[in-house]
Amino acid sequence: MASTTSSGSASGGGSALVFFVNGAKVVFDNVDPELTLLQVLRGKLKLAGTKLGCGEGGCGACTVMISHYSFGEKRIRHHAINACLVPVCSVHGCAVTTVEGIGSTKTRLHPVQERIAKSHGSQCGFCTPGIVMSMYTLLRNNPHPSRAEMESAFEGNLCRCTGYRPILEGFKSLTKDFCCSGPGAGGQCCMSVKDKDGVEVATALYDVSKFTPYDPTQEPIFPPQLMDGEWRRKHALAVAKGPRTVWYRPSSMDQLLELKSKHPKAKIVVGNSEIGVEMKFKNLVCPVLVSVVDVEELHAISSTETGLKVGAAATLTDVGHAMEKLVKDLAKYKSRVLVAFLDMLRWFAGQQIRNVASIGGNVMTASPISDLNPLLIAARSSLTFASHSGGQRTVPFSMDMFTGYRKMAVKEDEVLLCVTIPFTKENEFFEGYKQARRREDDIAIVNAGMRVLLSAEQDGGERTVEDCSLVFGGMAATTVSARATEKLLIGRKWSHDILSAVSQSLLDDLPLTSSAPGGMIEYRRSLTISFFFKFYLAVNDAIGTIAAEDVSAIHRTERAPTKSSQLYQEVPADQSQDDVVGRPMVHLTAERQATGEAVYVDDMPVLDGAHCCVLKIVLSC
To answer: Whole-prediction pTM value?
Structure first.
């Protein structure tokens, strides 16, 4: 792809938008901040391999890899993201890799493209480029992933016709625990079997030995220009103006606070996973957008003796990595709250969203079904805000921060600086729960964060509740605490006797009218009681008082890496190689689908001045 330059005057005195796509430099002197990366890739750069599916980050058809140089870490970072949500202005100074940039049928297929094509992992092929890019990004970060890591990489990718078995079967040969690398018993493949009549049954849909090995040293280099700090400073995208929206990109906290002072109604953008959806589907107009990707203070993550301090713009992926490290280093009792957060993050959207969404965005969006807010409130977290005129203030995060549906008690010129999550104490126990229609990549029906501080063990093994938090999402227009139930528990013995009283109190604390949005009224109310019962058993297990018959209730179902095979009758040895009947044959367009070269209806360019005629036929009897 040749270097692309869009002519036009600079917007508002800011420098041009500069990024790389598949190794080629792209420059736009005048860009509309409302444009997404996907619109630019498909509309302006004519790279139609990246598809538009749901348009809200849920299907993964638009997955591309974004690479940027972290000057703080002094390393190149690669992330899979949803191009349908990412504003094109946010990729300034980044390198974008699309499915066309890693291989083609005209040159050579990348090992990822080859495997999904030859292992029958593409049927209609519309989702294939996105799946290819998720696997490609995983390999760029980890050339030898495990099967579990591979499957986790596809949590944000949906395939509606092929099914996941052939996709996973093909890609498993790129994992470190791929098993079929040699003959089994009797010199045969370890998967060879015979049916009940003794007929040889085949399972080999492809020959792994013929696949091109993956060599990470052969990947394209990151553009050296983007690693030059001096160049980045001189070419910072300070501002971009469109017909309806102005985009600012401050490079310091002082600049950010000054901008928020001048534009108090400005929207702060990190991953655009919420604002982008509202702009696209709810016709939200944001006159001023402020990107904080260059404000280092908002991305910082640090720990103290008492807790974890997370910058508001830190991505959920980075937060998860920091928590995983702390769980290994801290005493077990201190990390209970972090373990609960990690378990919740595992089911939080897909990796493409977690790679860009921030913890501050979760807080400030104030969604009533936020997965993280119930945990943050239950943990007694604190929020630190900053403004140009008022300096900094730190407040406890509680349900009182919510003044209504998606509204918070925050001054218009304030910016959320960080969230501080305290570690759990020795006799403090913490759990998070979420019920959705499916586990991966789905919004909650009801979720909860629960914490209890018990007294030291007394004579007879009894313990008393000294403090507790029971916080729920999906039970009101905001995240709510069951305050009457919390008061009921404090001072009572932690025993089976509390269950009946707590169950009734929760029903009284969390009423839902028959017309409540979301429906499923009785089911949602019953979930609050179920969550507390599981929490009660989990705490009993931690303190060693759980009954044997209750143990199975606290173990969460863990899905093992997928194991599967397709069986078919082996063709006779004397069957001609030209006779394809009974043989697994790769369909003719599989390779073009895997490289993004297959052309679909919406990939066809619209001619200037083209007109549309709709023919309506009415049939009457």
So the answer is: 0.91
